[in-house]
């Protein structure tokens, strides 16, 4: 079987594994009478980020920081510039007050925060990008604060109809969870192994593969969720999902990766950091400009053009 087919197979197994694991975890949470808000904001949210998490854990243990970091930054950039751009281009994104007050500014702050962590000149005196174990612990601490705030702020804002729970038998729950974890492990192993081989075949760096192909592949759950939101004309759900995913990617997954193995990078990541921060800032800017608090088709087109320009810059370099 060719390198490309095995790489693609890895993504398919990743997505199937995430779906099985989340289905089993939701049923356990329901049997334990876990509040629906906690199910929606923890287990379901984890489900869309599970591919990124397992790929990054594998990359960290294999000491491949370029793919670990590229996967997260690339996924964040893909979510905001490409997926949100497509959603807004098809159907304008109306933004709710809760998203404006918290998720949009918090996403921008976390995007800028990565730059501060990587280039912490004043405390460490280092002159190269590095996420240390301590940085990872601090990021996980802020993620815990984010989770507590989200749950507290939304504890009375969700109904049974908002989460579709298909009840399954206890043995089947066990099979779903174990199978899901095994598939997530196998899928991430295939993606990491063959992404490195593809990088060598094309003579490009692991960073380029991580920030383009791996990142867009692990963002497929967010893309699918956004397409569903367009069909239902509930585009604010797409925006909330994308912003939430980016925050989870940055604080939880990147933080976990740094705790497992410090992430040492080259100065080339400055370009990725700039586009990650610029994308977050544009979302912040678009909401407060134009007619009404929304991201319209023109602004969606600008986000897409920015993503095309970003791809051009990293590939031309």
Automatic annotation (TrEMBL):
Q: Name one Pfam family in it.
A: Na_Ca_ex
Alphabetical UniProt keywords = Membrane, Transmembrane, Transmembrane helix
Q: Which membrane topology term applies here?
A: Multi-pass membrane protein
Q: Where are the transmembrane segments?
A: 6-29, 36-57, 77-94, 106-124, 136-152, 173-196, 208-231, 243-263, 269-288, 300-316
* Start and end residues of each Sodium/calcium exchanger membrane region domain: 4-151, 173-314
Q: Which GO terms describe its molecular function?
A: calcium channel activity; calcium, potassium:sodium antiporter activity
Q: Which domain of life is it from?
A: Bacteria
| Single Gene Ontology BP annotation | intracellular calcium ion homeostasis
The cellular location(s) given in this protein's UniProt record come to: Membrane
Cellular compartments per GO CC: plasma membrane
**Annotated InterPro entries:** K/Na/Ca-exchanger (IPR004481), NaCa_Exmemb (IPR004837), NCX_ion-bd_dom_sf (IPR044880)
Q: What is this protein called?
A: Calcium/sodium antiporter
């Amino acid at each position: 079987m060719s390198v490309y087919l095995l790489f693609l197979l890895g993504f398919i197994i990743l997505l199937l594994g995430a779906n099985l694991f989340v289905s089993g975890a939701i049923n356990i949470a329901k049997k334990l009478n876990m509040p629906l808000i906690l199910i929606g904001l923890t287990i379901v949210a984890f489900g869309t980020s599970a591919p990124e998490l397992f790929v990054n854990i594998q990359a960290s243990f294999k000491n491949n920081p370029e793919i670990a970091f590229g996967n997260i930054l690339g996924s964040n950039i893909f979510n905001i510039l490409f997926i949100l751009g497509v959603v807004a281009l098809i159907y304008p994104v109306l933004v709710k007050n809760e998203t404006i007050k918290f998720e949009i500014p918090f996403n921008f702050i976390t995007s800028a925060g990565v730059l501060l962590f990587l280039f912490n000149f004043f405390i460490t005196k280092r002159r190269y990008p590095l996420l240390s174990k301590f940085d990872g612990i601090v990021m996980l601490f802020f993620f815990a604060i984010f989770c507590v705030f989200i749950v507290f702020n939304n504890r009375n804002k969700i109904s049974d109809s908002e989460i579709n729970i298909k009840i399954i038998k206890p043995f089947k729950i066990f099979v779903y969870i174990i199978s899901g974890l095994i598939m997530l492990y196998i899928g991430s192993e295939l993606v990491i192994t063959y992404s490195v081989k593809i990088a060598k075949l094309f003579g490009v760096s692991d960073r380029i593969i991580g920030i383009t192909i791996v990142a867009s592949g692990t963002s497929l759950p967010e893309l699918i969720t956004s397409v569903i939101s367009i069909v239902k004309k509930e585009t604010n759900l797409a925006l909330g999902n994308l912003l939430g995913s980016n925050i989870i990617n940055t604080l939880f997954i990147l933080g976990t990766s740094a705790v497992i193995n410090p992430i040492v990078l080259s100065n080339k990541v400055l370009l990725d950091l700039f586009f990650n921060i610029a994308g977050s800032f544009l979302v912040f800017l678009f909401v407060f400009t134009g007619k009404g608090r929304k991201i319209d088709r023109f602004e969606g087109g600008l986000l897409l053009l920015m993503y095309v320009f970003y791809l051009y810059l990293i590939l031309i370099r």
